[in-house]
TrEMBL record:
Transmembrane segments: none annotated. PANTHER family: FATTY ACID SYNTHASE (PTHR45527:SF1), NONRIBOSOMAL PEPTIDE SYNTHETASE (PTHR45527). GO terms for molecular function: catalytic activity; phosphopantetheine binding. GO terms for biological process: amino acid activation for nonribosomal peptide biosynthetic process; secondary metabolite biosynthetic process. It comes from Pseudomonas syringae pv. aptata. It comes from the Bacteria. Residues 64-151 form the Condensation domain. One of its GO terms (cellular component) is cytoplasm. This is Syringopeptin synthetase B.
């Protein structure tokens, strides 16, 4: 079927909605007092594993929205992240300039709004002391901002920033959302 369709839209129409899988509803209520294995239908964890993961989340139990296994692509990304001795192969950089602090604040607030709206941007990965890695969706995650003070006398500002934050030498902490 893949090579018999002349366009992507024709392939999408041919595939249609067949075989769509519905994810189970989230079984962790916001006010629960403990997350138990029966609340996590998409992952196999012991109670000790769950308690250890929950204790690693800032805000603890009240900040855990869901826990589930990694998708195969995520497992591959985790492998490359862990295998990299230095830097992070999936970290990309971009440089933005703002004419005022107000515009910077508005941009940061817009990013925070996107984080609040999309689970994947509030997701951390845990693997240490677990049989298999899991992703933990936080109920709330705050955009981290790190102000860098640079002196134009030390050279081009963009080059100074790249030197400090070069993806070849900077690592993400994927245990943080």
């Amino acid at each position: 079927m893949l090579f018999s369709q002349p366009t992507l839209s024709a392939l999408a129409a041919a595939v249609g909605g067949k075989g769509q899988v519905e994810a189970p509803a989230n079984l962790i209520p916001a006010d629960c007092s403990r997350i138990t294995p029966d609340m996590l239908p998409l992952v196999s964890l012991t109670q000790d594993d769950i308690d250890r993961v929950v204790s690693s989340v800032p805000g603890g139990l009240s900040n855990v929205q869901d826990i589930y296994a990694l998708a195969p692509l995520q497992e591959g990304i985790l492998y490359h992240h862990l295998a990299a001795a230095e830097g992070d192969p999936y970290l990309q950089h971009a440089l933005f300039a703002f004419d005022s602090r107000e515009l910077l604040h508005n941009f940061a607030q817009a990013l925070q709004d996107v984080i609040a709206r999309h689970d994947i941007l509030r997701t951390a990965v845990f693997w240490e002391r677990l049989d298999a890695p899991v992703q933990v969706v936080w109920r709330e995650a705050t955009l981290g901002l790190d102000e860098q003070v640079l002196d134009p006398a030390d050279g081009d500002i963009a080059e100074q920033l790249l030197k400090r934050l070069d993806p070849r030498h900077t690592r993400l902490d994927i245990r943080q959302a």
